[in-house]
Amino acid sequence: MSVKHTKEEIRSYNLKQIKRHVKISAKCKHYSVLNNLYSLIKHTKSKNILMYMPLEYEVDVYKLRRKLSNKCNIFMPFMVGLSLKMVKSRSPFLIDKFKVRQPVNRQIFKGYLDMAIVPVVGVDLSLGRIGHGKGFYDRFFSELNHRPKIIVFVQMIDLFYNKEITQKHDISCDIYMTPRQNYIKRGKNDRDFCRIGGWCHWRWSRISCS
């Protein structure tokens, strides 16, 4: 995808594209992302997983909760001030000022994550995240005392930019999943990932990140 202008303009353009896409496209398209995500979780034997409660135009990763409930510990981001904390996924949920569902549970988890699944508005050549511009996830990951073993960005449409747009403080992922194509940070394990559950048949792009 060719670059528009500034990061803010790209964010605004992408959000319009995503919302338009959701209105005219079948929502079942996100199931391909969910199936591949589930294969990745099983292959990596991830136990402690950070998910999110989706907005209407985001991949509904919460649908995986039932399949994983007996095998994994599922955590959700909970807004505290200008950052996020992790709490165990447990209903009921409340709607915050950004119209995001959040668990009522307030017991903060401070352990280690095997995997973090994060929604995006776009992704650049460094596999850096273009989000909504509030910086919640950037602050959250900078405050963690560890980096999750695997960070996965997911999105309903492919909005990969073949140019570096994000800054150093923006988080980056190991894998970017979309229904159309998937991107993986080039490394010694990338071939192993591509063979997970028939992944060799997916459309893959390996990205070399400095």
From TrEMBL:
The cofactors it requires, by name, are: Mg(2+)
Offer one example of a GO biological process linked to this entry: tetrahydrofolate interconversion
Q: Which UniProt keywords apply?
A: ATP-binding, Ligase, Magnesium, Metal-binding, Nucleotide-binding
**Which E.C. number(s) belong to this protein?**
6.3.3.2
- Enumerate the catalysed reactions: (6S)-5-formyl-5,6,7,8-tetrahydrofolate + ATP = (6R)-5,10-methenyltetrahydrofolate + ADP + phosphate
GO function term, MF aspect, one: ATP binding
Enzyme group, top EC level?
A: ligase
Q: Which Pfam families match?
A: 5-FTHF_cyc-lig
Family the entry assigns: Belongs to the 5-formyltetrahydrofolate cyclo-ligase family.
Which PANTHER family does the annotation name?
5-FORMYLTETRAHYDROFOLATE CYCLO-LIGASE, ATPASE INHIBITOR/5-FORMYLTETRAHYDROFOLATE CYCLO-LIGASE
| Name listed for the protein in its UniProt record | 5-formyltetrahydrofolate cyclo-ligase
The scientific name of the source species is Campylobacter pinnipediorum subsp. caledonicus
Provide the organism lineage as a comma list.
Answer: Bacteria, Pseudomonadati, Campylobacterota, Epsilonproteobacteria, Campylobacterales
